[in-house]
Amino acid sequence: MSKADRQNQVIATATANLDVAVGFTIPARHARGRIARLGPLLDEVLAAHDYPAPIARLLSEALTLTALLGAMLKDAGGQLTLQAQTESGVVDLLVCDYASGQLRGYVRFDQARLAELPALPTLTALLGKGYFAITFDQQPSGERYQGIVPIEGNSLADAAQSFFGQSEQIPSLVRLAVDDTGHVAGGILLQHLPEGEEGRERLHTRFDHPEWDHVRALAETIKSTELVDDGLAIETLLWRLFHEEEEIRVLPVTELSKGCRCSFEHIRDVISRFAAAEREEMAAADGFITVDCEFCSRAFPISLGDFKG
After folding, report:
1. Using one digit for the tens of pLDDT, what is the confidence trace for 205-240?
2. Which superfamily does CATH assign the domain made up of 3-258 to?
3. What is the dihedral sign for C-alpha 29, 208, 160, 38?
4. How far is Cα 273 from Cα 251, in angstroms, rounded to an integer?
């Protein structure tokens, strides 16, 4: 197939340009990657919180990174959790997770200390010292893996690259962007797996491999404006980056949505597992146990009367 035919094929398979993650591989270079772009689901997540702009931007980037990583899960029922926890940062805790294409996240921070920072604070200014953890939970197979590294770099993308370099020993490139309105975010994750070494020991992975140098150089030409341009199909963006390659394999699109798994039924079921005496200690004077969900900023009052009978 000629390059022109491949370009037409890529463009013809273009899908909706928001709330999607598109995977791809470049077989001749032993590279794989994902591009994700978030829109309406981002608004839904942020609408549940009244975050200042720097915190909203940080969460938007974190959700995009979570989408990139979660879309790589092999098991459809798997879950991925991204967490940044600090000891002395303005942000005390950042948590996002992904399950079956659904994303959720929240940030816990010190409002007074945030007000002392510039309008566009660096990641170091926000998080200070702490650790960055990513947990892969392949629930159907029962496999669970967690990688933890110190937070490094001036951006969340830098921290993610550091994670893969230190914890996974996989040469990786990560770019994240949020548009000026704060309503669209996008990102790319590109990795090198030479000689089909997925699932094998990576102790001798070369971070200066010529294949990796080549595809990384191409990916680094991507512009932030391209990542957040909802008028630009992701497949077309892939063509712009890698059209000189022999083959680009575009994988099935993963549709993304906002999802919080809390509900009265679920919370009632969890509380029902406690002994009656423990439930009474949890309850307020009015006879209700109130559980707050930080992901969706909702309170769930459960009556002790629901457990009688």
Report:
1. 565 678 899 999 999 999 999 999 999 999 999 999
2. Hsp33 domain (3.55.30.10)
3. negative
4. 43
